[in-house]
Amino acid sequence: MAAACPAALADIAAMPLAERVGRMLLLGFIGSSAETEGADVIADHLAHRRIGGVLFLRHNVRTREGAESSARRFGEIDPAAWMAIDQEGGLVQRLSRDLGYTHIPRAMQVAEARTPEAAGELYRLGAAEFRAAGFNMNLAPVVDVHDPDNAVIGRHGRAYGTDGDTIAAYAGAFIEAYEAAGAVCAIKHFPGHGRSRGDSHDGFVDISQTWSEAELAPFEQLIAMDRAHIIMGGHLTLRALDPSGAPVTVSRPILEGVLRERMGYRGVIMTDDLDMGAIRQNYDQREAVIRSIEAGNDIIMLSNSAAPDPELPQRIVDWVVAAISEGRLTEARIDASVARLDVLRARVV
After folding, report:
1. Which of 50, 52, 118, 117 shows the shortest CA–CA distance to 348?
2. Is the peptide bond before 141 cis (omega within 30 degrees of 0)?
3. HSE (side-chain half, CA atoms, 13 Å) at 39
4. Least crowded by CB within 10 Å, which of 44, 116, 211, 337?
5. Which helix (H) or strand (E) holds 6?
6. 83, 100, 115, 172: CA torsion to nearest 10
7. Contacts 24+ apart (CB under 8 A), 322-331
8. DSSP assignments along 29-71, one per residue
9. What one-character-per-residue DSSP string does 216-240 give?
10. Alpha-carbon separation of residue 21 from 287, 300, 313, 334, 339 (angstroms)
11. CA 204, CA 264: separation in Å to the nearest integer?
12. Distance between CA atoms of 220 and 304, rounded to whole angstroms?
């Protein structure tokens, strides 16, 4: 991914700080149609440039018309905003066949039954429906390794295989199909969730005893193939890469040290949902947000569903301003994220 030019950085620096911080926020809402209080809150945030995009979860997709009307309303207010949803296929397909969308088999079934080229045909069909529904950011594909004893990935067939070549080939076909349709994809869960023995929805998952360097291979290959434009870190503890025991989400040694410096990644890094139990039970919201930015994340994702706060974006701006005054963050750090997000946005224009 190309770096922003000096002129672009100067333009970014001239923007109000609140708007720059807002670009980094991917916020969820309560409601399953465009005519709900939660949708009104999101619409107001978008109109005032307080957020950069909207996260749709299962509770937002009760009906096809409800989901699409919400995405349509938000997209009309800010055509550049991200409309993000999990659309892996299999168990994790929010736009499901129950709502009239084409069924996409789980990753393991796709890899067992199709070549990567044939998988691309299937994914192009899914991508066309995805864009027609009003979405432009897919929180997929999974590039974790398959382990049948893993309760989160392996048990549900969410991984393409056990080796980097296979995983990268199918994930690459997935990403290529969505990018051709005008959407971006978030590769997950860095640095590898496939051999974990826990679920980060419930608490930190320590992968220190089960993880191996081989789990980096799919990420490395997709970076080399120029297919990695967003990478999502997991709420995973890995002492081999960060002896402090900090989860990847807030680990600068892993995100900046390993992913950017060692692996040469120049694209966008995003958090998994900071409202998940792993983070919520261990950090207050302010500290989770600030530490995520310190660690190198460019997109801060919050479902805002555990304790919905209609003024959360404004609070986050206040937290960032305070962190800058304390010397924990700098405006240049914020500008670097906005620059990477601007390069990413150019992919869907």
Report:
1. 52
2. yes
3. 22
4. 44
5. helix 6-13
6. 0
7. 323/290, 323/293, 328/290, 328/294, 329/290, 329/293, 329/294, 331/13, 331/17, 331/20
8. -S-SSSSSHHHHHHHHHHHTT--SEEEE-GGG-SSHHHHHHHH
9. GHHHHHHHHTT--SEEEEPSEE-TT
10. 16, 10, 9, 7, 12
11. 27
12. 32
In this predicted structure, what is the pLDDT of residue 124?
98
Q: How far apart are CA 177 and CA 224, in angstroms?
A: 18
For residue 152, what are its two tokens? Answer: 């989160």
CA angle 227/230/235 to nearest 5° reads 130
List Cα–Cα distances, 87 to 139, 261, 281, 297, in angstroms. Answer: 7, 30, 27, 22
Q: Quick check: 19 and 331 in contact, CB under 8 A?
A: no
Quick one: pLDDT at residue 4?
Answer: 63
How many CB atoms within 10 Å of residue 44?
14
Q: How far apart, in Å, are the Cα atoms of 152 and each of 80, 179, 200, 334?
A: 33, 27, 9, 33
Spatial distance between the Cα atoms of 288 and 49, rounded to a whole number of angstroms: 22
**Can you spell out the DSSP letters for 200-214?**
TTTS-EE-TTT--GG
Query: Integer distance in angstroms from the first to the last C-alpha of the chain?
Result: 15
Residue (of 327, 265, 267, 259) closest to 294 by Cα position: 327
Q: What is the pTM of this model?
A: 0.96
What pLDDT, on the 0 to 100 scale, is given for residue 236?
Answer: 95
Distance CA 215, CA 144 (A): 7
Q: How many CA atoms lie within 13 A of 99 on its CB side?
A: 18
Return d(Cα 229, Cα 175) in angstroms, integer. Answer: 9
Tally of residues, the chain: 349
C-alpha angle 346-341-231 in degrees, rounded to nearest 5: 105
Amino acid at 265: Y
